[in-house]
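Minutes, structural biology subgroup

Action item carried over from last meeting: produce the structure token record for homocysteine S-methyltransferase (Dioscorea zingiberensis). EB confirmed the sequence was re-checked against the source entry. Recorded below for completeness.
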Amino acid sequence: MGFGTGDPTSLMQELLRVTGGSAVIDGGLATELEANGANLNDPLWSARCLIDSPHLIRKVHLDYLEAGANIIISASYQATIQGFKSRGFSAEESEALLRRSVEIACEARDIFLKGYPKESCDVNENKLTSKQQPILVAASIGSYGAYLADGSEYSGDYGKAVTKETLKDFHRRRVEVLAESGADLIAFETIPNKIEAQAYVELLEESNLKIPAWFSFNSKDGVCTVSGDPITECAAIANSCDKVVAVGINCTPPRFIHGLILLIRKVTNKPILIYPNSGETYDANTKEWVPTTGVSKEDFVSYIYKWHEAGASLIGGCCRTTPKTIGAISKALSQDHGAPQTSIA
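Output recorded by EB:
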């Protein structure tokens, strides 16, 4: 990073300053890994590629950077120490794989920046140069339900035996490792319930970690998280933590996003981030996405102006979105303001 005052909020403030008030998050990782030939039929899901095909992860990161993403998210959503150990890796090897997820993203950023001379810019194709395109690397932390690989991150139902302390114990070392991995921030993603948000806040507040974080919840109806907890209560928990620099929604159908932005804005003045899925529905039994409710790239992007106007300042895509989607989002947002003039990578 080329700046920093010790204040976690300065990272997001600087990003939005140099991008003219809105920034682009990348899109679906697993979708693109599969499109590039990866086999993700595994409890580790996209994290499997950290073991057998890291080059594919790097390629997908580069594809999103080419599309105009300002933030790329590491392939650690379903990467956990517990999950790797269950596959025979030692604790040390498991932690190394977590760090590797961030290293790959940083490598992709370096490759991208070196490939663009600072004095050139192809405005017509909306490809910004290293001088103009700020890029951050976010270390992804998926929910406890993602580790279970049973679809419970889409229900938030972990059972009565799983307490806040259970969740803190599960996530603690993972958070520590990723916080020290070289990432610019931590992305707590697809948070399905209030108890996990509370566990994350306590972990951040109890630690001496300097890295900022964002909290991103998933919703089933535009009012509550998938567990049924009101989104306003969950966003308020995130807002209470000084280390949380943005709050928002991911892996949620586009039709719910506008209302969710308005609800979140009621309880926080922090930047709002949204990166919805394509609108398709995940079937936890078949472990497949049901395509009948999806929206086209054009329909997805038609929401962008409405979301931005409602208060979202960081916009991208989640499951089943592609570099083409992100490219269209980048183009749409760039029409609202001039090209940024400073790199913060």
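Discussion: Residues 280 and 293 are 5 Å apart (CA to CA).
Next step: EB to file the record with the rest of the batch.
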